[in-house]
Amino acid sequence: MNLFSINDLIATAPALVLVTGAILILLLQIVLPKFRLQAAYGVAIAVTAAAILLLVTGIPTSWQAAGATVQILPPIGTPVPLTEAFNRHVLFSGFVSEFSLLILIALLLLLLNSRRLLAELDLNLVEAYLMMLFSAAGLLYFIAAQDLITLFVALELSSLPLFVLAGWDRHSKSSNEAGIKYFLLSVLATTFLLLGIAFLYGASEGRTNLNELFYSLSRQPQSVRFAPFLFGILGWIFIYAAIAFKTALVPFHGWVADVYEGSITFVTSFMASLIKIAAVAVFFKLVMNTPENHRAIVQPVLMVFAVGSMFYGNLTALVQTNLKRMFAFSSIAHAGYMATLFIFPVGSALLAEIQKEASAALFFYVAGYAATTILVFTVIAFLETGDGEKRRITLEDLKGLGKRNPLAAFLLSLGALSFAGIPPLVGFFGKLYILRVLLGSGQYILALFVAINSLLAVYYYARIVFHCYWDYETEGEKLTGSALRSPAAWISGMALAVTVIGLGLVSSPVLRYALDAMVRFR
Amino acid sequence: MDNILLIIAVWLPLLGFLINGLLALRGKPANQLLVAVAGVGSVAVSFGIFVWLTLNKQAWGQGDAQIATFFNWLNLEGLQLAFAYRFDGLSAFMAWIVTGIGTLIHIYSTGYMKEEKEDFARFFAYLNLFIFSMLHLVLGDNLALLFLGWEGVGLCSYLLIGFDHHKDFAAAAGKKAFITNRIGDAGFLIGMFLLFNLTGSLQYDTIYLRLSGFTDTAFLNTVAFFLFIGAMGKSAQIPLYVWLPDAMAGPTPVSALIHAATMVTAGIFMMARLAPVFLGAPETSTFIAFIGGSTALFAALIALTQTDIKKVLAYSTVSQLGYMFMAMGVGAYGAGMFHLMTHAFFKALLFLGSGAVILALHHEQDMRKMGGLFKHLKLLAILFWVGAIAISGIPGFSGFFSKDMILEHAYTHAKGGKILFGMGIVTALLTSFYMYRLIFLTFHTKEDAVSKMAHSHHGHNHHGDHSHHGGGLVPLGWNIYLPLVVLGILSVVGGYVGLPHLITHETPAIVTYFDKVLAIPPGEIAAGWKVSATHAEEWALMGGSVAVALLGLVLAFVIYQKKNLLPIADGAYRKPLVKWSFHKFYVDELYEALLLNPIKKFAFFCYRVVDARFIDGMVDGLGAAATAFGSALRRLQTGFVGDYAVYIVVGLILAGFIAFGGVK
């Protein structure tokens, strides 16, 4: 075992910058008690921007020790060599960098809204920024983790602040309930994760590094008489279950609706975007690192997760009247769509090519999904507090919104149409690329399920647009106030709207870029 | 240089359209002088350019076509299409007619539409757009441009028929024209695709090249048949002629320009342009000749009893177009084009003349309320007589030469020539009769339209919008008369390019011209298409056609002038043939009963039963099922953490079963 060097720290610089920012916020609270809120907001945005910058430009080579191969992310677009740090507990590849970038951009867009949204609820406390930065840093480590132990620790780092954030509205019963529910069920999931790690440890004669695991397990005979193989299978199932919990896949979805609805909407959008990005990325990475002899056995389980999530999410969303709950169930369905990319034909000669295509499609889909989710939840959050008091928004409340609040109606409809997969919005192309991968690898049944579910989903998304623009019967005085009530929120909202439209229009180059960047991710 | 001029000539009317269109969009009465200058000027200059180009052009033979490429439109593998214009003998001929008569009718319109303050600019915008489209139709160097123009003129026709769109009948007539034409267009497209499939190109020269030596008669018959269906629609032949009489709902200059002189002859032009196809399809050609003959006869029969002055002329147009198709069908392309030209002259004259009458009488179109106008409108009456003499085939006037040439070629056609000739000669008699009937009823009966009008105004003063004119005639300006005089002169002299060889002992000039410019290998027509006729027979033919023309004149004179019989009020006709003729042989009713109602019923069946019950039921059922599922699944969402934990554990156990079920 080598000693840690400065290179290890440089390699994880984006995450470290976030952590540094969090600590700085704590210090500033003592140094500048009067301006602590402004300082926290500023620092959070500044460090996030800095982390993005670091990720995009990479660390200049002159900073490196002689002969070292440490490199974070070379300028966007160039092939990324693999970089390892902390004794191969952390590994950077194109795949990791892409998804890290996504997380940081989503964090920045969320932070821009945060101050106004939290202040309107009278919940603008310094600790909120602290929690978000810690959680995001945890997610960066989570994606980059190459060792199961690090994976576990990173997951905890990202989850613990979230429990706090879920219960952020301490005067609200439902918020407190959400925090507790999320915590209790997460504990269960974490248990499974540890149990799974233990099983794999045993099955592979004491390995926790994903790479080593892969090579060790892939040599096992695929036989019921070989106990380590069975333990290996059990291990994968437990680990998958834990990550599926984070991804919000059926049957580990129970918490989603209650926690999404109970938490304040700003936190909901944090969970629905950042956590989802990280969870699908890690899930994909784990599937990549499951050797084929194990995957052939475990894959049907994934298929049940994916198909079950699509149908459960969409069918349940059909009957929801509360907007946040509807989007909660819809997020389960979207997780299901993405999970279809975790399934590959067994014994295919083109496996590497299919996996590359799948990773690019996943990247594109989750990027579009995150942008649309943040957009929709931001609009909902602003609508909730529009007339001074917090309310729950139902579909009925949207009636005539197009007339009373054109911007909100437009943004909400834009998001709903993108989710529904209407061209030329980003949601359409996301589904298109998923279908292309599925059809290209011969998984016609899954493609059919995705298509059927896209159809199902159009109904409830279209209802939102319908209520906003066509249903003028009831002209309530509800839901007034601008959709984006601060300059920062306006910038963020417009950036998201442009992304939802623009990413669809330039989908082809983006996908190509993602494909090029995805070289080697195991 | 010439190529640039050619492109300018084609696109200039679009400039007029844009100017007038923008003026029309302002929504208030535009400056009429400005509109007139832009509208008339663009077409007149275009005409001037065509004249100049014609004078400049050295050779007119096949292969001497001047081709000006404006820009490449499509550049695909296997299909190159350019906005290219072809100036050759055929298209020059058509361009002269389109822009020449177009200019005259534009001038006329400045007088005729003067009262339409609000819609003046819109009217000229449409007319200019029509000229632009028509020039693409005739000058385009490939079938795609022809089709573009074909659809463009159809659109303009629709817009102009329904020009008074607030009147229900005008809007309905516009729709009828458009829809009927679509049936033809579908056939035309099929023919075009077949031709493309055969030759691999839409460009004329390539098509001609590939067709030379191609002898699969069955295939060419099919292509020709479908192309002719397109012509049926555009050029109003049985069974698709029904739209043209209704199209008279449009302003009269439109009837003259589009529905008499130019657009409706597009089918004839198309046949001339694709002569090699039709020459290779003798059976379809004979079929075309018989459709033409039948249409000529049938429409003339209807024209006999119509009381609306424009309706008479409309059926007359259908009938004359039938003559042209007869000529094209028997392979007499020169004769067909000749009649196209003379017809353009005298029919435009007659339409514009009738427009002048209508205008003078405060928009009265019923001939029963006219009469004795000769006293008041001497020049107009004389011009009208010129047109009538020309169309009825009195020697010395243009219609005589062209019609006689057609009848002669019909007679000598190898297949059913005698029958065709019989149809033609009877039509000539009917034509003469209905035309003079129109003249006598309008200009010569003893009762005076002016006093009739005054009477009706005193009786019930419902012509509120025109009451400020009082009872007198509306004065007609120089811009009404100038085009009429020019067209009158042309109606007389236009025929001398086609003096019959019986008199000159040589092939008529116009026939020589078209034999040269059309892509027809010399001598091709003679082989198998024609039987010869003796000189005596030919003299007899000519004598016969002159005789029937005079007979028609005499009959009309006796019935309407001497006995002073007025057509009886609608529906009072006793004799079946007269009654049927008056009711247009109930063709509209027949179509409605046989086609429209069944289709409508089927559509309602689809809507009420198939869609509303079956498909909607299915969709609603699926939706209801999905919602029911959702409601059931929703119950799993209890809100209790313990339940959720149970789901997780149960799910995990199930996952284990699924996975380990696969381990052998």
Notes on the structure:
With 522 residues, chain A is mainly α. Chain A has helices at residues 6-11, 13-31, 36-57, 94-120, 126-144, 148-166, 173-203, 210-218, 227-247, 254-262, 265-288, 292-318, 323-339, 351-384, 401-404, 406-420, 426-440, 444-469, 487-505, 507-517; strands at 83-85, 90-92. In chain A, strand 1 and strand 2 form a beta hairpin. In chain A, helix 3 (36-57) runs antiparallel to helix 4 (94-120), helix 7 (173-203) runs antiparallel to helix 10 (254-262) and helix 16 (406-420) packs antiparallel against helix 18 (444-469). The longest helix of chain A is centred in the last third of the chain and has 34 residues, at 351-384. Mean pLDDT of chain A is 87; it is low at 66-70. With 664 residues, chain B is mostly helical. Chain B contains 27 helices and two strands. The longest helix of chain B has 48 residues, at 587-634. The A-B interface holds A 180-181, 184-185, 188-189, 192, 222-224, 229-230, 233-234, 237-238, 240-241, 245, 250-255, 257-258, 296-298, 300-301, 304, 312, 315-320, 456, 459 and B 623, 626-627, 629-631, 633-634, 637, 639, 641, 643-645, 647-648, 650-652, 654-656, 658-660, 662-664.
**Main beta sheet strand tally, sense and closure of chain B:** 2 strands, antiparallel
Strand content of chain A: under 5%
Order of adjacent strands in the largest pleated sheet of chain B: 1-2
Rg of chain B, Å, rounded = 30 Å
Helices and strands in order:
The complex is a heterodimer of chains A (522) and B (664).
Chain A: H1 6-11, H2 13-31, H3 36-57, E1 83-85, E2 90-92, H4 94-120, H5 126-144, H6 148-166, H7 173-203, H8 210-218, H9 227-247, H10 254-262, H11 265-288, H12 292-318, H13 323-339, H14 351-384, H15 401-404, H16 406-420, H17 426-440, H18 444-469, H19 487-505, H20 507-517
Antiparallel strand pairs in A: 1-2
Chain B: H1 2-25, H2 32-56, E1 66-76, E2 79-87, H3 89-112, H4 120-139, H5 143-161, H6 168-199, H7 204-211, H8 217-234, H9 243-246, H10 252-261, H11 266-273, H12 275-279, H13 282-303, H14 309-329, H15 333-360, H16 378-392, H17 398-411, H18 417-444, H19 449-459, H20 478-493, H21 501-504, H22 509-517, H23 526-529, H24 535-562, H25 576-582, H26 587-634, H27 641-661
Antiparallel strand pairs in B: 1-2
Helix pairs in contact in B: 1-2, 1-4, 2-3, 2-4, 3-4, 3-10, 3-15, 3-20, 4-5, 5-6, 5-10, 6-7, 6-8, 8-11, 8-13, 10-15, 13-14, 13-18, 14-15, 14-17, 14-18, 15-16, 15-17, 15-20, 15-22, 16-18, 16-20, 17-18, 17-24, 18-24
